[in-house]
Amino acid sequence: MSADSVARTDAGRGPVIAAAPRVRGAPGGFRHWRALCAGLLVVALAACGDSAAPDAGGREPPPTESPLTVRSRQMLGERLEEWVLRSPALAEETRVRVLLPSGYDASGATRYPVLYLYHGSLDDEKAWTDKGDVERLTADYPLIVVMPYAGSGGYYTDWYNFGAGGPPMWETYHVGQLIPWIDATYPTRDAREGRATTGLSMGGFGAFAYAAKHPDLFVAAASFSGALNINQPADTGQPDQSVFDGGLPFATWGLRTTDEVRWRGQNPWDLAENLRGLNLMMRTGTGLPGPGYNSFDPIEALLYLGNVDLHEKLEALGIAHRWEDYGPGGHEWQHWQRGLERALPLLMQSFAQPPPPPDPFSYVSIQPAYAVYGWQLRWQRPALEFSRLAVDGRRVELSGSGEAQLVTPPRYVPGRVYAVTREIEGATETLSLTADRDGRLSIELPLGPANPFQQFTPQARLTGTRVYRARVDLPG
Questions:
Q1: Whole-angstrom distance, CA of residue 10 vs CA of residue 126
Q2: Catalytic center residues
């Protein structure tokens, strides 16, 4: 499929090919329509006990070392339960709904895959059960569905709060705390091959952002009307929604004029290459009037542009994905229900026949320290900027500025000395490195003088953000 076409599917019709609007280099009239969508989007959004006992299946709360504290648990139906949890990452108690499969076996003899299903703005953990018909849609699947709260406008991220940091720290809670808690509480397939992430609107952003930042935790991701490129419209970006949760305007990532790199460091479009190796699905409508839909929906229209952006970028990167444009239609539950119904077979297929981790792979990030696919990287630099790690067999390439420490996966004999070739900006040398007790090699990479200014700031645009490159050849 070319970058100028999209697969359009409707409830009663098979796929057909339809032209997609040009997003890059659009004519002036289209740019004005995009700006109008953004303005209308702002208007539309503005309008808009201390311990737990075992349950009937004999499950106990996770070990006490979990940072989560269980406040209460309630069965809401034969398959649906709701937990009230306390997390140090959040300012107050939070709720999560868990939907169990039909015929659920709590003994541990059966291990279930888990779908993390995220809600949109101005909604909560009840959204998919109360409005999305998720109980009926998943009744025939051996699947645990986890539906956490993420704030009315939390945007599935650890808030910047103008340098003060969280709370709220939604990513820390959802990824770093809730996933291990779910795996300790339920008989899950507690590995990449047993997890997928899905959501609508703001939750579609969360599904793809979490998958892009933690691709070794998930095997698949699906988005329905998701905010998949928050650089849209290009000049200002989508409006921050921190005020929906009582925060100051732009508390989430800061002002784009001073902190654009924080926005882009969370943005699925900017992190697109990290999604290689996952099964991906994007489904959206145009928001435009047409057969069966007589209105103009500025929210769906703007999000559609971001979806087209990501679709085209994934195609340019050669990353396979399923792209569904259902044409005229708004930002409405009927389309999100249909999206989940269409996504579930793809997700279950991903669990049954999981794609292997990508090899080779690349990973971009603004974080000063991260771990992915067994590799660890830590930077020493004063300013926030993107870096890129690329691994192809025994060859590793790194780009950025400042000093970096690269740690390999545990693939070597502890205590043995290995010869490692390091090339930085054309200068090559051979290092003798000893594998640590876990069988990892640690390589120091002084790439070059660290950039003094945060990337994309006016100062950085004036002086430039220098990128240095290093290559490491590892022993077999």
A1: 27
A2: 201, 297, 331
What's the confidence (pLDDT) of residue 330? 93
Distance CA 145, CA 9 (A): 26
Cβ proximity of 158 and 169 under 8 Å: yes
Q: What is the pLDDT of residues 435-444, one digit of tens each?
A: 999 999 999 9
For the chain, the residue count is: 476
Rounded Cα distance between 322 and 397, Å, is: 30
Nearest to 475 by CA among 446, 425, 439, 426: 439
Cα–Cα distance between 402 and 273 in angstroms, integer?
23
Which of 114, 103, 81, 88 is CA-nearest to residue 184? 114
Nearest alpha-carbon partner for 198 in 91, 137, 118: 118
* C-alpha to C-alpha distance for 59 and 106, rounded to whole angstroms: 7
Instruction: List 325's β-bridge partners, or say none.
Output: 284
Q: How far is residue 272's CA from residue 201's CA, in Å, rounded to a whole number?
A: 18
Q: Are 357 and 200 in contact (CB under 8 A)?
A: no
Residue 386 per-residue DSSP state: -
List C-alpha distances in Å: 206 to 86, 150, 224, 374, 446.
21, 9, 11, 23, 34
Beta carbons within 8 Å of 326's beta carbon, 6+ residues apart: 8, 9, 10, 283, 284, 285, 335, 338
Q: How far is CA 257 from CA 24, 262, 302, 457, in A?
A: 22, 11, 21, 7
Give the rounded distance of the alpha carbon of 457 from its chain centre. Answer: 25
Ranges in the chain, pLDDT < 50: 1-64, 235-236
How far, in Å, CA of 61 to CA of 53, rounded?
8
Which pLDDT score, from 0 to 100, does residue 16 have? 26
DSSP 57: T
**What is the per-residue pLDDT across 220-278, written as a single tens digit (0 to 9) for each?**
999 999 999 998 765 445 567 999 999 999 999 999 889 999 999 999 999 999 999 99
What does 234-261 look like in DSSP terms, one character per residue?
A: TTT-SPP-GGGGTPPTTTTT--HHHHHH
